[in-house]
Amino acid sequence: MSSRLYFFAVCFGCLILAAIISFTRIYAVICNKSESILNYRGKSLALKTPQRHYSQEGGSLHGGKCHTISSDWVQHLKSSKELDSLGCKQKLPKVLIIGARTSGTRTLNRILGFHPQLATAAYEVKFFDKNYHRGSEWYRSQMPFSTPDQITLESTEGYMYHRNASLRVSKTLGDDIKVIIMLRDPVARSISDYLLTRHRIYDSKMTSAHYKRVFKESRSLDRLLVSGKGKHGRRGSTKMSYTIEDTFEKTVLKNPDLVSHKNIFIADSLYVYYLRSWVKKFTPNHILEVNAEKFARKPGETLAKVEEFLGVRPFFRPDYFKFNMNTSTFCLQKPQSICMPRLPVEYPVISEDAISKLRGHFENSCRYLFLLLKHYSELIGDIPLNYHPIE
Ligand SMILES: Nc1ncnc2c1ncn2[C@@H]1O[C@H](COP(=O)(O)OS(=O)(=O)O)[C@@H](OP(=O)(O)O)[C@H]1O
């Protein structure tokens, strides 16, 4: 009798144990804790590192975005019935990407458009530099439709350079706005900007003179710029040089020893002059500076940093990005396989001599930039001679 009782007691104990184990497993699956259980059992070190709990693919909290994105990056708005049921509306942005030019702002903006909690404008609206006179209702009408839980983001690389943009942003959007600045090695940026502009001149159907005029007009808005006498922040654009020669060296070096500091490709890399007004206007926790080279090499890490800054759930896992040998860039694999098109620009070899002259030219502005942004250390002293971010 007592052995029977003992047998039942053991069976009962086993049943309770099995129930506890399966409950824990179900809990683990539902709450995404399976990693922690494995770590606990194996006493893995991984338990000590913070876990990123990624949000579900696609859709917002309320289940869906207001548009879909096709492989050519075009946003297709859903039917008005769907828009109504999702509560889609056009809202003013709460996040701006303001520059710098040719630093990957277009790519970052488009990738962020896949985050379930973000809605990004499909093109540069240029409101705070070019279209301010049109008013904030016009600006709102240019914004993407978004669900109530989504944050709207707009990206225009010219904002950073405009002398009144920071003031206009705080007036229109309030001081709670979050600002993302992408900064690239200034020499690399100047070269890239020159090559893209030259390519567009050769590629466009416009005559060279016509294109140069369009190019000049697009850059010579009321910008902060460096004057010839070394006093910074003077108003106007008459002193800028928009010369584009057939080589980069001829364009930016007045003679073999002198950098043409008023040349637009050089001036647009003097970040510190333009960022002063932004740093004065917005507190550090409202400004995120993104290292463009790091973004090009490890987009997953940059996206994690941006998600944290914006306070949205982690979505872009490192394996969402895959290096593409044809474009020499990272393309998105998930939630959609899509790649940023690159202009077929050939990268000529730039003489080491010209590069080291430019490094010398940018050294001071990098140092001041460091003081301004405190932790912007990557560009100082150890800029690789190789200007291309991918190579
Ligand atoms: N993933 C990915 N896909 C495509 N391009 C990438 C990517 N990551 C970074 N980059 C770099 O972005 C540089 C162009 O920057 P922007 O898009 O801001 O400039 S622009 O709109 O073309 O003027 C462009 O600079 P260049 O390499 O000089 O052409 C790219 O290197």
TrEMBL record:
The UniProt GO MF terms for this protein read: [heparan sulfate]-glucosamine 3-sulfotransferase activity
Transmembrane segment boundaries:
none
Binding positions (3'-phosphoadenylyl sulfate) = R184, S192
Q: Which Pfam families match?
A: Sulfotransfer_1
Which domain of life does the UniProt lineage start with? Eukaryota
Sulfotransferase domain residues are: 93-313
- What keywords are assigned to this protein? Glycoprotein, Transferase
Report what the protein is called: Sulfotransferase domain-containing protein
